[in-house]
Structure formats: C-alpha cells, structure tokens
Amino acid sequence: MVQPSAAASAKMVEKRSVQPIVTGPMVRLLVASLGALGSFYLLMPVVPSYAAAAGAGGVGAGLSTGVLMLGTVLAELASPAWIRRYGYRTVVSLALLVLGLPAAVLPISSWPPLVLGVCLVRGAGLGIVFVAGSALAAELAPAGRRSEGLGLYGAAVGVPSIACLPAGVWLSGHHGYRPVFFAGAVLALLALLAVPGLPGRTAPPGSALAGSASRESALTEPARAESAPTATKPDPADVGGLAGPAMVFAAVALVAGVLLTFLPLSLAAASHRLAAVALLVQSCTTPLARWAAGRYGDRYGGGTLLPAVVAVAMGAGALAWAPNPLAVVAGAALFGIGFGGAQHVTLALMFARVPTSGFARASALWNVAYDGGMGIGAVGFGLLLDPIGYSAGFVCTAAVLITVLVPAWRQRHAGLTGGHA
User: Fold this and answer.
1) What dihedral angle (degrees, nearest 10) is formed by the CA atoms of 404, 281, 368, 350?
2) What does each of the 421 residues of the chain score in pLDDT, given as a tens digit?
3) Distance from C-alpha of 342 to C-alpha of 93, rounded to nearest angstrom
4) How many CA atoms lie within 13 A of 229 on its CB side?
5) Helix, strand, or coil (residue 200)
6) Under 8 Å between Cβ of 377 and 255
7) Which residue, 309, 333, 318, 337, is CA-closest to 250?
8) With contact defined as beta carbons under 8 Å apart, do 124 and 74 qualify?
9) 3-state secondary structure 117-145
10) Rg for the chain (alpha carbons), in Å?
11) Contact indicator for 139, 11 with CB cutoff of 8 Å
12) Is the Cβ–Cβ distance between 265 and 49 less than 8 Å?
C-alpha cells in the first residue's frame, strides 16, 4: 500500500484543520444584524430632516442624532453585563423589539420631545445589536481566522447601509416620511425570526463557539478550549492599550455623525438625488474597505490607521465644495474608504488585546467610541451650523482629525491575525 508523502499528509491535516467561517449560527447572526441595521440606516438620515421640517432647525436635526447615539452608548455600556446574565438570544430579541416598535410611533406626531424619545429608545436597541453582534461574530469565527471573520461580518452588515441610506432619502423625498418609518419597523421585527438559532449564552473563558449553536454544544468539545486563541499583552508603544484605537476611532466616527446627519440637509436645496447617490457611494465603499482590511490583516499580520484617518479627513474636506457633484461624490468615496478601514483595524486591534472572555467588553468600548463620536459630531455641527454654515463646518470637521494623526501612526506595528497582537 502506498503511503502518502509527508508534504501530502501535512496538506491533508491543514485542510482538515481549516474551519469554515460561515456556519449556521453565523448566518442567523447576520440575518438578525441585517434587519436591525437596515431599520437603523433607513431612518438615520431621514429623522433629522423630519425634525428640521417640523421647525426644530439644524439644532433639532443634530439633537435627533445626538440623542440616538446617547441611547446607543448607554446600552452599550450595559450590554456586556446583560449578555452575561441573559444570553445572546434574549438581548438581541429585546434590541429588535425596541428598534422596530418605536419606529411605528413616529408617523403619529413630529412633536420634538416625542421624536427625541423615540430616538433615545431606538438608540438603546442599536447599542445592544452593535455589542452583541461584534462579540458573537468574534466568538463564532474559528481560531486563526478571526480577522477574516470580523472582516466578513463587517462587510455583510454594511449591506443595509448600501441599500437603506440612499433608499430612505429617496423614499422620503418622493413619498413622504410615513412609508420610511413603517418600513424601518417591519425590517427590525421580521429579523426576530432569526433569533431562535443564535447561541443562548456567551461561551465561558477559553472556549470557542465556532460551529456550535449553543453554549451547551460548545462545551461538548473540550478540544476547542485548547485551540482558542489567547491575547498577548499590548505593546507599550501603543497609545493606552485599548484606549488608543478607541480614541482614534471616536474622531473618525465624529465625521460619520456629521456626514450622515447633515449631508442630505446641505444638499436639500440642490438635489435629493445627489444626496442619495453620495450616500450610496459611501455605503458601498465602507464595507468593501472593511472587508479588504480584514483580508490584509490575516495575510500580512498588521495594519495601520494613518491612511484611513487621512482618507476620512480628505473626504470631509471635499464636502466643503458642495453642492458640486464631483466634490460631493469624491468626498463620500474617500470618507467611505477611510471609515471602513478604520472600523476594521481598530476593532481587530482591540480584540487582539483581550482574551475571548473580554470580547464583549472590547466590543462595548469600540461601539461607545463609534456612537459617542457620531453623537458629538452631529450635535456639535448642529450648534455651529447657524454661525458658520455648511462649508466652513465641513472644513472644521476635517480639521478635528489632525489631533489623532500621531496616535493613528503609532498603531502601525500592531498585529491583527487570529486574535494575536
């Protein structure tokens, strides 16, 4: 009998050892996340316009996003404890309910306190989805492929922004606000159908959930605990461990809050179509850049935040020439590329610096930076809008990123593969 060569045997072992990223629980997580984020992105650029049209002006538009992000941040801070106590299925179900049901209330009245209250409640649901989704995606990804798994998750959950950001602007411009609000409610509530297949509880420290649909099935394979990746200590050169990437990403997210809230308003007098096209370009480039960053991280073991920050700054600066179509579309594309790259690199860096049991905590901190930055950006821009106008406001937004260029550059040597720093 002919025995296989050593090289052939090694190749067969390597092939058997490669676990798939797309498993049943991962698919269900993606379906639930797509519904939740579809509801969010459909209303994200529309509610500020709804508030402004009701007489609240730029301040009211900024506050609607700011309050949404406040609810998101508060829920993100509490989500790790909720996940530990109640499990993924329960908290994701709650998130989808509070995203969907309040959206159906918005057509009743545009009274500012009601609108802000709805934004606060929906923000809480969004925060739960952000924390639970990122943490569960990291747990479901096989050992050694976490960066690619996070990149895939990030690209997939970017699909709602591609479809829903421009669709919300177009639909509200042609058919009014009511259809947008009801569609947002339906998307979130339909996603509840995917929740029963999610893991009930987070895995205990040192175990992996890859390929399992529940905590109990994960515990039936002790070998997973041995193969689970462990985190190494952060490099002392990094800026504050987890705080360094979080600070840089908060500044990038600040620009996102400005763009998603005020770009449609800044172009309202020119063209709803141009606003929809710009948001479509941004929402396409962001997940593609996030996916590409994940592929790069797994293959080359590192990444840098500096190019992403520079691209975001250039994109925000280009919007100062709005409503010039070329400037608007180019600015949206540059912002999308930088935003997607920054999303992946910062999140992967933070997961690389904690053990598996700390994924929910790292995810919460990253999402607090994301939503806190968006909220501060929207409220701050709204307050500056009357004194300085849109063009100067976009220039000031780009200038904010100068403050994080050095911290972004100092992250350049961090390794991102498989959960190892």
Assistant:
1) -70
2) 445 555 554 444 444 456 777 777 888 999 999 999 999 999 998 999 899 888 777 888 899 999 999 998 899 888 888 988 898 899 999 999 999 999 999 999 888 899 999 999 999 999 899 888 888 888 887 766 777 777 778 778 878 888 898 899 888 888 889 999 999 999 999 999 999 988 876 544 433 333 222 222 222 222 222 223 333 444 433 334 788 899 999 999 999 999 988 988 888 656 678 888 998 899 889 888 887 887 776 565 556 789 999 999 999 999 999 889 999 999 999 999 999 999 888 988 888 878 877 777 787 788 789 888 998 999 999 998 888 888 999 999 999 998 899 888 886 544 443 332 2
3) 29
4) 25
5) coil
6) yes
7) 309
8) yes
9) HHHHHHHHHHHHHHHHHHHHHHHHCCCCC
10) 21
11) no
12) yes
Give the distance from CA 48 to its chain's centroid: 20
* Total-model pTM: 0.70
CA–chain centroid gap for 236, Å, is 27
The alpha helices in 141-242, defined as continuous H runs, are 146-156, 159-175, 178-190, 215-219, 223-227
Question: Does a cis peptide bond (omega within 30 degrees of 0) precede residue 45?
Answer: no
> CB under 8 Å to 163, separation ≥6 — which residues?
38, 41, 283
Query: Six-digit token pair at 112?
Result: 């500012």
Cα separation, 405 vs 307, whole angstroms: 10
Which residue type sits at 199? P
Query: To which residue do tokens 């949404």 refer?
Result: 68
Between CA 94 and CA 72 the distance in angstroms is: 14
The count of C-alpha atoms lying within 13 angstroms of the C-alpha of 276, restricted to the half-sphere facing its C-beta, is 15
In whole angstroms, what separates CA 210 from the centre of its chain?
A: 22
Q: Quote the CA–CA distance of 75 and 124 in Å, as a whole number.
A: 5
143 dihedral zone (left: phi>0; alpha: psi -120 to 50; beta): beta
**Max Cα distance, the chain (Å):** 85
Q: What is d(CA 282, CA 276) in angstroms, rounded to the nearest whole number?
A: 10
- C-alpha angle 222-228-229 in degrees, rounded to nearest 5: 165
What tokens appear for 407 in the block? 């911290």
Sorted by sequence, the CB contacts under 8 Å of residue 346 that are 6+ apart come out as: 245, 246, 248, 249, 305, 366, 369
State how far the Cα of 421 lies from the Cα of 416, in Å rounded to an integer: 6
- Start-to-end CA distance of the chain, whole Å, equals 45
